[in-house]
Design brief:
The strands form two sheets. Strands 6-8-9-10-7-11 form a six-stranded mixed sheet. It is an alpha/beta fold. The chain folds into three domains: 52 residues, Nucleic acid-binding proteins (OB fold (Dihydrolipoamide Acetyltransferase, E2P), Beta Barrel); 182 residues, Rossmann fold, CATH 3.40.50; 84 residues, Helicase, Ruva Protein, domain 3 (Orthogonal Bundle). The longest helix has 37 residues. Helix 7 runs parallel beside helix 9. The radius of gyration is 31 Å and the shape is elongated. The protein contains 13 helices and eleven strands.
């Protein structure tokens, strides 16, 4: 009887060992299959949506697929993922930092530009200090009053009037990281990737906060919407919508402020300047006589001017000049002095410099009329 029981146990143990061996082989085979899925080459795709535990994917060619994913992946719409080629099963999420090296495509710096290096824009500087500098340096004031400071501002006006200088000065005053993005380059260089790059720029801005994102030529991204025809126009719209989503987004901007800059305020989409976005509009005009005097003194501070130079008369000659053109005229005057083997700048040098800059401006205007006339 006892021997029968022992024999039965022995048989059961043998069966269990056989079953265990089969299961181990199955697990080993499954692991090998799983490793095959993880082997390169894998496709890169973008998560469009999550539906019932599965993923709606968009490939770079624009095709969309509804697929499964490996368990324990924390995904959100907009994430980049690696997918297996055969069944497009989502294998792995790509960290943002690995999708782009963002710092290759934008200018990131810590400016050292003081407010006294910006001339002729006192009123505009005060407005920027209220809207950008104060919330970053004294956030408790806004909490006590119970209001939310603006997320961003729009600087508009002719080229060369000091929009970038103002943005760099406020970044320096608040010890903020300054990220400069050029709207036209973003659209031209990154067809199919613009929206993703915008997302990553804002992610980097949060990581480096306090940060000021300066979007130059914002009209290239945010012009009034028309009937979307070409793929390029659709891409611009996707990038623009991503920009609005980042400004409005679920993730608070915190110590990230946005300064948009444009020479063409008239063509901007109203959506970008509505309340809650770039809702403080600050005009940066060409300087008046007093403004030109301030700018002239800034740019000639390190130059040796002859005592006979009549600053008032010289600045009147520069009627209609922008800050950049005043700087160019001062530089040209320096060259005229060097050619004459002098280290002092006389009034004649300044007049010649002004004439040269005005002549170049006139030639550029003629070229523009020839192209579009």
């Amino acid at each position: 009887m006892l021997s029968n029981i022992i024999t039965g146990y022995t048989t059961d143990i043998q069966a269990l060992e056989d079953e265990n061996r089969v299961l181990k082989e199955s697990v080993h085979n499954l692991k090998r299959e799983l490793e095959k899925f993880h082997q390169v080459p894998l496709l890169v795709a973008e998560v469009k949506d999550l539906i019932d535990g599965n993923v709606l994917l968009r490939l770079n060619n624009g095709n969309e697929f509804y697929v499964g994913m490996v368990d324990d992946l924390d995904l959100m719409p907009g994430d980049s993922v690696l997918v297996e080629q055969k069944n497009l099963t989502v294998i792995k999420k790509i960290p943002l930092a690995k999708s782009f090296n963002v710092e290759k495509f934008v200018i990131v710096e810590k400016p050292e530009l003081e407010w006294d290096q910006v001339g002729g824009l006192d009123r505009q500087a005060e407005e920027i200090k209220e809207v950008i500098e104060l919330p970053l340096t004294k956030p408790e004031l806004f909490k006590k009053v119970g209001i939310q400071p603006p997320k961003g501002i729009l600087l508009y006006g002719p080229p060369g009037t000091g929009k970038t200088l103002l943005a760099k000065a406020v970044a320096s005053a608040t010890d903020s990281t300054f990220i400069e993005v050029v709207g036209s380059e973003l659209v031209q260089k990154f067809i199919g990737e613009g929206a993703k790059l915008i997302k990553e720029i804002f992610q980097m801005a949060r990581e480096k906060s306090p940060t000021i994102i300066f979007i130059d030529e914002v009209d290239a991204l945010a012009s009034k919407r028309i009937d979307i025809g070409t793929s390029g126009e659709r891409e611009v719209q996707r990038t623009f919508m991503q920009l609005l989503a980042e400004i409005d987004g679920f993730k608070p901007l915190g110590d990230v402020k946005i300064i948009g800059c444009t020479n063409r305020k008239d063509i901007l989409d109203p959506a970008v300047v509505r309340p809650g976005r770039l809702d403080r509009l600050i005009e940066i005009p060409t300087p008046d006589l007093e403004g030109r005097k301030e700018i002239f003194k800034i740019h000639t501070k390190t130059m040796k001017l002859d005592k006979k130079v009549n600053v008032e008369r010289v600045c009147k000659m520069m009627e209609g000049f922008s800050g950049a053109e005043i700087k160019a005229a001062c530089t040209e005057a320096g060259y005229f002095a060097i050619r004459a083997n002098r280290y002092k700048i006389i009034e004649k040098d300044l007049k010649q410099g002004i004439d040269k800059v005005r002549q170049e401006e006139s030639l550029e205007g003629e070229d523009y009329m020839h192209m579009f006339g």
